[in-house]
Specification:
Elements: E1 13-17, E2 36-42, E3 46-50, E4 56-60, E5 64-66
Antiparallel strand pairs: 1-2, 1-5, 2-3, 3-4
InterPro entries: DUF6501
Protein name: YozC
């Protein structure tokens, strides 16, 4: 299963958090505005990154800009 090896994969690219203004979920605890994160996996709508908790989480691309 692909998701079980995400932490050991080479990052695809880096993204920087632009905002944490979520409509439905609170993401300000897991993302820091201005901080850069490595993208582990990417889908059409989401980036999977290692967040502030040290776990891989999926977040909408609208929170980020590519570095």
């Amino acid at each position: 299963m692909l998701h079980e090896t995400w932490k050991t994969h080479e990052p695809l690219k880096k993204v920087e958090v632009v905002h944490t203004n979520a409509q439905k979920f609170k993401v300000s605890d897991m993302l820091t505005v201005g901080k850069q994160y490595d993208v582990i996996n990417e889908t059409e709508d989401y980036y999977q990154i290692i967040d502030n908790a040290g776990l891989v989480g999926g977040y909408y691309k609208t929170y980020f800009k590519e570095v």
